[in-house]
């Protein structure tokens, strides 16, 4: 496997991973994804072992970059064969605008209707949005277990969280913008919480892993609205991290895969998407990487069913329908970001 680091805008860097074909004749497969390689690696290895003639190149980008590259390549021959992203509205926009092609494979035909859109978009994970805190925080205050408790802790005159909370910068992260706008629509207390975060001089980050690293290093003590799959993966190596699914409500993100209409290697792309939906692919997500397998029949510690058994009615999956596009309305986005920025200004 060969790795190349590529420069990108916004201070980010993409990572490219190459899994060479082991038999000839070979078929290329290009995957553009907003999914860290260490999370995807069990899937990539198993797929290339199953299909040794596939010459696979996997490039990990941020969510905005996946979308922007897809738009730029729509009228060219530089398109990827598969796009994967947790920024659900942007994936829906690509499909709704005619950028995606239907997938007609055995597993796609059997996939739950609620977890797909027109056989062009396929959800294959079930990832909760969580809070993450350092275990030593509990020595100074009761760690918040819900949004309400976080709001109360932030508003307390004795709060231990001044300058210690970190969350997404919605200007940098499409995923963070999506979460913020869904929170604002779902919870009547969202703007009170945003104001309390600002009064506590919260920090902002561009990715969950970046924010978790700051918590590990002690630069922050609590992360708000982080992606549960990445948080659980980090906590496996860092037992000082506690991952809390909020008890009042927890948004659930489903990572979406699509095949561009102008994919240069459509057969290979279809094989990969079908693999994500297969029992083998879903079992790997349930046992080797905490993406939370979506398929009901799959067993393991990280499945949608196991998560539902623990969190119950607190879970609120973001629906996969054209309602996602309202988040992309320019006026709604500007209004949200203006109000978000105003909370920072008012706290100074």
From TrEMBL:
<keyword id="KW-0732">Signal</keyword>
<dbReference type="Pfam" id="PF01547">
    <property type="entry name" value="SBP_bac_1"/>
</dbReference>
<dbReference type="InterPro" id="IPR006059">
    <property type="entry name" value="SBP"/>
</dbReference>
<protein>
    <recommendedName>
        <fullName>ABC transporter substrate-binding protein</fullName>
    </recommendedName>
</protein>
<dbReference type="GO" id="GO:0030288">
    <property type="term" value="C:outer membrane-bounded periplasmic space"/>
</dbReference>
């Amino acid at each position: 496997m060969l790795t190349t680091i590529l420069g990108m805008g916004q201070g980010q860097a993409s990572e490219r991973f190459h899994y060479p074909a082991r038999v000839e004749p070979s078929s290329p497969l290009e995957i553009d994804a907003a999914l860290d390689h260490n999370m995807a690696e069990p899937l990539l290895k198993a797929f290339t072992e199953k299909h040794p003639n596939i010459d696979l190149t996997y490039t990990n980008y941020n969510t905005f970059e996946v979308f922007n590259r897809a738009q730029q390549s729509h009228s060219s021959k530089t398109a990827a064969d598969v796009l994967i992203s947790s920024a659900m509205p942007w994936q829906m926009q690509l499909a709704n605008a005619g950028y995606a092609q239907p997938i007609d494979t055995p597993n796609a035909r059997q996939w739950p209707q609620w977890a797909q859109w027109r056989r062009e978009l396929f959800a294959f994970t079930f990832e909760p949005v969580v809070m993450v805190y350092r275990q030593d925080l509990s020595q100074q205050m009761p760690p918040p277990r819900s949004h309400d408790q976080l709001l109360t802790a932030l508003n307390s005159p004795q709060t231990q969280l001044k300058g210690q909370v970190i969350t997404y910068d919605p200007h940098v992260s499409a995923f963070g913008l999506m979460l913020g706008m869904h929170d604002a629509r779902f919870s009547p207390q969202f703007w009170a919480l945003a104001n309390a975060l600002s009064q506590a001089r919260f920090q902002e980050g561009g990715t969950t892993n970046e924010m978790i690293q700051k918590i590990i290093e002690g630069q922050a003590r609590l992360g708000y609205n982080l992606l549960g799959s990445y948080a659980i993966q980090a906590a496996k190596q860092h037992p000082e991290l506690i991952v809390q699914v909020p008890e009042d409500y927890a948004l659930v993100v489903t990572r979406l895969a699509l095949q561009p209409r102008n994919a240069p290697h459509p057969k290979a792309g279809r094989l990969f998407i079908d693999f994500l939906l297969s029992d083998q692919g879903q079992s790997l997500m349930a046992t080797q990487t905490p993406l939370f397998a979506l398929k009901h029949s799959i067993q393991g510690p990280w499945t949608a069913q196991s998560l539902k058994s623990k969190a119950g009615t607190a879970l609120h999956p973001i629906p996969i329908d054209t309602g996602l596009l309202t988040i992309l309305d320019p006026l709604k986005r500007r209004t949200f970001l203006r109000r978000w920025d105003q909370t920072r200004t008012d706290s100074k």
